[in-house]
Amino acid sequence: MVSVTRRTGARGKDRRLAVEDKLQQAMERLLEQGHSFTQVSVEQLAAEADIARATFYLHFRDKGELVARLMARVTEEVVGATRAASPQTRSRSELRRMIKAVVDVYRRHYAVMAAIVETAAYDAQVEQLFRQMMDTLIGVNRRLQQQMKQAGQPRTPPLVADVVTWAFERSCHQLVRNRKPAQVNALVDALTHVVWNAMYVPQDGGDAD
């Protein structure tokens, strides 16, 4: 017998995604209004998302499962934005476009990302989820670093991928909120400079355009 507490099949997946969208937007609105990440209740989320409390529990066991899924979705968006990077990326302008796309993801989801970082300092479950997200992103840059090495790019110290990933996250956490377009562009330029010189500089040391 199919459980009434979980949707299955394509239709069920579509419904779950629709509910996720509503709940993610509701969570971001509540956080932007100054509510605490850990204190936001299922009842508040359901009311803000304009869904029944019972609908929430049709798709998620508890708020922790929702938080894990929201973090996974943000991670997926960030990884998707990095797909332009490859050992064949020889142009700073190409790299800048990719970095701008990643920064835009952070900007769209800043409220959730900031709350996760702050909550991770005292909530072990959220800290674990945050670490898993960062490990995923570090893994992307480690694979890129290895691919570039195999493609003949200059050697870089082993921890460069880790440092670049954490520097990127910290920069977005500190420098994207309430910034004007010109300030965001300045951040993108700075990140492009750092990542290019750390991972993409051609063997002759010049800057390719």
UniProtKB/TrEMBL annotation:
Phylogenetic placement of the source organism: Bacteria, Pseudomonadati, Pseudomonadota, Gammaproteobacteria, Lysobacterales
The entry's keywords: DNA-binding, Transcription, Transcription regulation
PANTHER family on file: HTH-TYPE TRANSCRIPTIONAL REGULATOR RUTR, MYCOFACTOCIN BIOSYNTHESIS TRANSCRIPTIONAL REGULATOR MFTR-RELATED
Gene3D superfamilies to which the protein is assigned, alphabetical: Homeodomain-like, Tetracycline Repressor, domain 2
InterPro entries per UniProt: DNA-bd_HTH_TetR-type_CS, EthR_C, Homeodomain-like_sf, HTH-type_TetR-like_transc_reg, HTH_TetR, Tet_transcr_reg_TetR-rel_C_sf
Record protein name field: TetR/AcrR family transcriptional regulator
Segments forming domain HTH tetR-type: 16-78
UniProt DNA-binding residue ranges: 41-60
